[in-house]
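Lab notebook page, bench 4
Experiment: in silico fold of construct C2
Operator: M.H.
Input chain length: 322 residues
Purpose: comparison with the prior construct
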Amino acid sequence: MTTLPFYSAVTDDFEAVNQLIMRQLHSRVPLVEKIGNYIIGAGGKRLRPLVVLLAARACGVHDTQQHSLAAIIEFLHTATLLHDDVVDTSDMRRGRSTANALWGNAPSVLVGDFLYSRAFEMMVELGDMRIMRALANATNVIAEGEVLQLSKVRDANTDEATYLEVIRSKTAMLFEASSHTAALLAEAGDEQTEALRRYGDALGVAFQLVDDVLDYSGDASAMGKNVGDDLAEGKPTLPLIYTMREGTPEQAKLVRHAIQKGGLEDIAPIREAVETSGALAYTQRMAQQQSDLAVEMLQTLPPSVFRDSLEQLARFAIARQF
C-alpha cells in the first residue's frame, strides 16, 4: 500500500510512526498487546496518519511531534474499527478475520477502550490544549455519528441530508481532525488552518462516497471485504437512497424492501438497479466535487512535495478500486 506515490514524501516519518505505534501498544496485560498488534498489523492504507504527516510537513513542521500526533490519530481510528466490527457483527476486515471473530466481542470492545485511553495519554504528553480540544471534539462527533447510523439501520426513509450527516460525523471527522490538528501543531495561520480543516472534511467525504460506490461495483478480493456489506446490514447509503428517489417504482420498491429486511438475497437485482438508475454515477460525481474542493483548499499552502502529495491523495480518493 505504501508504494502509492503520495507516501514517498514522508517515508522516514511513516516508519517512525509505525515504530512509535508498536512501542505505545505495550501493556502489562498480554491479551491487550495481542489484539492491538493484530489489528494494527492488519495494515490498511493508514491514510489518516499520512494526512497528519503530509499536512504538518506542508506547514513547515520539522520536529518529531508530528509522529506522536499521527500515532494518536491511528489509535483513535483503530479503536473505532474494533468497536464498529462489534456493532456491525463483522467477521472480515482488510481480508482477515476481525478481532471480535477471533477473540469475541468483550475483549474487542475493551481493547478499543485501551486504545482510546492510550491516545488521550499521548495527547496529554503533546501538551497542546488546542489539539486536545479538537481531538476530544472529534471523538465525540464520531461516537454521535455511529449512534445516528445505528438508529437509521433498516430505515428506508433515511434521506440524503441525514446520510451526509452520518458520513461527515462517522468517517470525515477523523480526516478533518488529522489535517486540522497538523495545522495547529505547526502553528499555521488562521487561513491555512481553516483550509486544511476543510481539506480533511472534503477528503473524508470523498473517500466514504467512493466506498459506498464500491460496495456495489467493487471487487471483494481487492477491497478485503464482501461486496454488499452495507446492504446486508440494512444501511441506507447514498446509492440506495438515490435509487429509491430517482429510480423506477419497481426499483424503489426493491431497494426499500431490501433495506428493511437486510441480507443479500436481492443483491444481484439491486446492483443492477443502482447502476441503471444512475445512482452510482451520481454518488461518484458528488465524490468528484469533494475531491476538487479538497484540492482547492490546498492553494493556501506554499508549493512543496508535501502539498503535491496531499493533492495526489485527493485524486486517489476517487480513482481507487479498493
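Observations: DSSP finds 16 helices and two strands in the chain. The chain has a mean pLDDT of 93.
Next step: discuss at group meeting.
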